[in-house]
Amino acid sequence: MRYAYAITGALLLGGTAIAVTTSSNVGAQTAQNEGLTAAAPAGAPASLADMVEKLQPAVVNISTKQRVKVQNPFAGTPFGELFGQGQGGQPQTRQAQSLGSGFLISADGYIVTNNHVVSAGAEGASVDSITVTMTDKQEFSAKLVGRDPATDLAVLKIESPKPLPFVKFGDSSKARVGDWVVAIGNPFALSGTVTAGIISALHRGTGGTYDKFIQTDASINQGNSGGPMFDMRGNVIGINSQILSPSGGNVGIGFAIPSEQAAPIVDTLRKGQAIKRGYLGVQISPLGEDLADSLGLAKNRGEFVQGVEPGKGAEKAGIKAGDVIVSVAGQEVTADQNLSSIVANQDIGARVPIILIRNGQRQTVTAIVGERPSEDELNNFAQPQGDEDFSQQDQNPGQATQQALGISAIPLTPGIIRQLGIAADTKGVVITAVDGSTDAGAKGLRRGDVIISANNRPVASQAELDAQAKAVAAQGRNAILLQVLRRGQPAIFLPVRLRDK
């Protein structure tokens, strides 16, 4: 900055000297900003004012009044009554309020917002009322028409004696990184706030099953949730939903649900119908670096099947635990387009071709898509993932440090099986010790875990386990796939990196 200022100062001084020596008419000088017009970036208007003026009336403020049960921290103390302790020390009911944004999609009062904007913010809380405030300060009581927690979308309805301003969805599939976008909402209860920026990334995931967010650097803050993201033609291509921030404020990383995903869900909710999604009945893991290396496959191309639910479409099609699904209905399974989202968009009852890899060989099966069960039912089928933290190590590394994987194991016997409390017909080796400095230790393997297979081959002794580790190394791979059983849990597949030599 000092260097830049020094140059500017020199130029200004030089210009002044010339002016003094060449002209005595000081009054002829003009202001630096007189007649100045900024050049617009290519493809963007010189000003967004005209577009915003038309769009703003369709963007609304949404507020809810909630009842929240809170436990009195002074309950049971002499201060309990003073600070509002209820009879018998029962939790007290308090009122709370939430604020967000939304936008009208029809003249008769249908509004789109985020589900979390109109949901109770805490366990035991309930929403008493939803109020919609227009830009002209008109207020309407809103009714919740439908919600889809999986994609964080909700549809509201207000009644007005006259037609209301509204906006329409655009096609987010045509959006490109670098395109200009405008966000309108109510951050920090500052109604009608307009921010602009560009699309920073597409198909961005933040951990959800159906994440395909548009990432933007347009300022998104608390209260922007549910508000629209517009393209330069004034069409809604996204619904602002999340931010990534260490401080809770805008740092230039905001996420919007793309219109190509939101529009069909909104249309279904608007009709008062429930959202139905396709389902195969598989428990899956991402094909990360270790897992891909253990299989000799490219990472993030396909997803690994940890388990198959009995009686569902995947089992009936012949899909097995240990398979890698790489394509469904002609669509490749990638990090940007995961298996769950592809299957969810298939028609229930449809017969879809599925390409999978089993023991290094590609094959195609045909599955009939079922209907996705409720979240409670899915939780009953949920299995621990390969990255679960198997803590509470209780072992002596000793002999394990000499083994190829840093694992010392012995064959299963009927007596050991009884001690472990596992099925009597279980085959494999039981771990007696793990070297904590190896990847096996870091992944949480411990004494008492049973290794059923290694490199998709059954193992019944330490020698067989080490032989499979050597076979993997000979093929140029740095990780081996183990099938591990722990008491009280289903068997899972776990990639373990070979120890450094």
Characterization of this structure:
- This protein is an alpha+beta fold and 501 residues long.
- The chain is 18% helix and 32% strand.
- It folds into four domains: 58-157, Thrombin, subunit H; 172-270, Thrombin, subunit H (Beta Barrel); 278-381, Roll (Pdz3 Domain); 398-497, PDZ domain (Pdz3 Domain, Roll), CATH 2.30.42.
- It has helices at 2-22, 49-55, 259-270, 289-295, 313-317, 339-344, 375-381, 414-420, 439-442, 462-474, and strands at 59-70, 92-104, 110-113, 126-133, 139-141, 143-148, 153-157, 180-185, 193-204, 213-216, 228-230, 236-243, 254-258, 278-279, 282-286, 303-308, 324-328, 331-332, 351-358, 361-368, 370-371, 407-411, 429-434, 450-454, 457-458, 479-485, 492-497.
- The chain has a seven-stranded antiparallel β-sheet with strand order 5-4-1-2-3-7-6, covered by helices on one side.
- The longest helix has 21 residues, at 2-22.
- The model is unreliable at 1-24 and 383-396 (pLDDT under 50).
Shape: elongated
Describe the sheet with the most strands: 7 strands, antiparallel
Secondary structure category: alpha+beta
Percentage of residues in DSSP E strands = 25-35%
- The total strand number stands at 27
Helix content: 10-25%
Q: What CATH architecture of the largest domain would you give? A: Roll
- List the total number of helices: 10
> Briefly, what CATH class of the largest domain?
Mainly Beta
Uncertain regions spanning at least 5 consecutive residues: 1-24, 383-396
Give, in spatial order, the strands making up the sheet with the most strands: 5-4-1-2-3-7-6
CA-based gyration radius: 30 Å
Integer average pLDDT: 82
CATH topology of the largest domain: Pdz3 Domain
